[in-house]
Write a structure and sequence with these properties.
By secondary structure, the protein is α+β, with helices and mostly antiparallel strands. The protein has a single domain, classed as Glutaredoxin. The protein contains three helices and four strands. It has helices at about 20-35, 50-55, 75-85, and strands at about 10-15, 40-45, 60-65, 65-70. A four-stranded mixed beta sheet has the order 2-1-3-4, with helices on one face. The chain is globular, with a radius of gyration of 13 Å. The termini are far apart.
Length: about 90
């Protein structure tokens, strides 16, 4: 199953996998920043062979509007910069 392009500017994606401690921490830190401003979509790369090939152990990865924003650890400054471009934020 192929994923739709992540060009939606109301959604932020996190590429993850079950049991990934870094992924859980990143999502926990990300949620308070985006709550009420962006929708979070968590993608399990193990459910998509093409993503497993692309990301492998390079997770978590945060993607917004088709661009990788950060990986392994949350870049809060980059997330705040994204939020500053969203009307009403």
């Amino acid at each position: 199953m192929s994923l739709p392009e992540a060009t939606d500017s109301s959604r932020i994606r996190v590429y993850s996998r079950p049991g990934c401690h870094l992924c859980e921490l990143l999502i926990e830190e990300l949620m308070p920043l985006i709550r009420g401003r962006l929708e979070l979509e968590v993608i399990d790369i193990d459910g998509h062979p093409e993503l497993t090939d692309d990301y492998g152990t390079r997770i978590p990865v945060v993607e917004f509007a088709g661009r990788d924003v950060c990986q392994y650890h949350l870049d809060a400054a980059a997330i705040r910069a994204i939020l500053s471009t969203i009307p009403g934020s």
